[in-house]
Specification:
By secondary structure, this protein is mainly α. It is built from twelve helices and seven strands. It is globular and about 70 Å long.
C-alpha cells in the first residue's frame, strides 16, 4: 500500500509545505490523545464501539455453544442509550421505526424470539444488518414471516447509476428484511440452504454461520474486529497521507516502493470499498486485480471453504495462485 497516494513526496515544495503544516498538528493531536483529552478508542460509539463488538462476540459464543437453543442474550444486555441505539440502528425496518425506536410499529429486536444462530444472523447478515461494513452473507431468517427494510435506504437503491455505488456505504446492495411476528421462534437457514428465498440467492451467501460463530466465540485475535479499536491508527494514517515526515512519522520514507513490488488486490464484489477508498487510492497499474463475486468486506477473510457454486473460497484461491506465480 502506498504511503503517498497523492505523490506529495515527489515535489520538494509540497513535501516541505505539508510536513511543516501536518507534522505539528499531528504532534498536538497525539499529545492531547495521550493525556485523555481526545478519545483513544471508539469506546462508547454505537454500532462500532466496544460494547457493540462485545455483543457480537457474545452472540457468536451463544451460537457456537447452543446453536438451536432460544436466545436469552438480549434479555441480559443492559438497556442503556449506547446498546439501545446499536440495536435500533441494526434492526430498524424504516426511518419512522428508527426515529421512534420501534414505537412506530415494528418493535425492537428485543421484542422477537430467535434461536442463538438466528440472532447472530439478525445482527450481522447482509440481508438483516443495516450497517454495511459489519455484514456477511451467511444465509437467511426462517421460521416466520418477514417484512422489507428501507432504513437507511433499500438495497435496490444501490442500482442507481453512479450514486448507487456510494449508497452501498450505508447498508450494502442486498435486499434486507426484518421479522414481523413476535410470537414465533425465528430460526436460520445457512448459506448453502437459501434456494427459494425470495430476497437473496446462493451467489450472495458465501459464509458458513457456524464458522462465523466459532471464530467470534474464540475471541481475539480471531474474531474479526478489534474490540478496543485504537484511534491512534486513524491519526497515523491521516498524518502519513497528509505529508507528515518528522517526529513519529520520520521513518515513513519509502513512499514509492509499493510500485516496485508484486501487488495483489482483491475487491469484495458486494462491498463499497472499491467504489470509495479504491477510487481515492488507486492500485498500482501492474497489480493483479480480482473481484470476489458476492462477497462483503468481512467475507474476504471469513468466507466458507467451499462456495455454493462448488468452487473453493475465492480469497484463498486467488492468494494461493498469486503466491505460486511469484515462484
Amino acid at each position: 500500500m502506498s504511503s503517498d497516494p497523492a505523490a506529495i513526496q515527489n515535489t520538494p515544495f509540497l513535501h516541505d509545505l505539508t510536513n511543516a503544516i501536518i507534522s505539528p498538528v499531528n504532534d498536538v493531536l497525539k499529545a492531547t490523545q495521550n493525556i485523555g483529552v481526545l478519545p483513544r478508542t471508539l469506546g462508547s460509539t454505537p454500532v462500532i464501539g466496544t460494547k457493540a463488538f462485545l455483543l457480537y462476540r457474545l452472540a457468536g459464543l451463544a451460537a457456537h455453544l447452543d446453536p438451536d437453543g432460544e436466545s436469552q442474550l438480549l434479555a441480559h444486555i443492559p438497556r442503556d442509550p449506547e446498546m439501545d441505539t446499536t440495536l435500533n440502528f441494526l434492526f430498524a425496518p424504516t426511518w419512522a421505526d428508527f426515529a421512534t425506536n420501534g414505537a412506530a410499529g415494528s418493535g425492537t429486536m428485543r421484542d422477537y424470539r430467535f434461536t442463538n444462530t438466528a440472532l447472530l444472523g439478525e445482527l450481522l447478515d447482509n440481508n438483516s444488518c443495516n450497517f454495511e461494513l459489519l455484514q456477511q452473507g451467511m444465509g437467511a431468517l426462517d421460521g416466520g414471516p418477514v417484512r422489507p427494510k428501507s432504513f437507511p435506504n433499500p438495497g435496490d437503491a444501490t442500482q442507481i447509476p453512479i450514486l448507487g455505488n456510494y449508497l452501498r456505504l450505508s447498508a450494502g446492495p442486498q435486499d434486507r428484511v426484518a421479522p414481523s411476528d413476535r410470537s414465533v421462534l425465528y430460526t436460520w437457514r445457512n448459506y448453502d440452504n437459501v434456494q427459494g428465498v425470495p430476497y437473496t440467492s446462493p451467489g450472495h451467501e458465501v459464509a458458513d454461520i457456524r464458522d462465523v460463530a466459532r471464530q467470534l466465540a474464540a475471541g481475539a485475535p480471531y474474531a474479526y474486529w478489534e474490540t478496543y479499536f485504537p484511534l491512534r491508527v486513524v491519526l497515523d494514517i491521516a498524518a502519513g497521507y497528509g505529508g507528515a515526515r518528522t517526529g513519529d512519522m520520520g521513518d515513513l520514507r519509502y513512499h514509492g516502493m509499493e510500485r516496485t513490488k508484486p501487488n495483489l488486490v482483491l475487491w469484495a464484489g458486494d462491498s463499497v470499498v472499491q467504489f470509495g477508498p479504491g477510487l481515492v487510492f488507486p492500485v498500482p497499474p501492474t497489480a493483479v486485480v480480482q473481484t470476489l463475486p458476492g462477497y462483503n468486506h468481512v467475507d474476504t477473510i471469513g468466507a466458507a471453504a467451499v462456495q455454493n457454486n462448488g468452487l473453493t473460497d475465492y480469497s484463498g484461491r486467488y492468494l494461493a495462485e498469486f503466491l505460486r506465480s511469484l515462484g
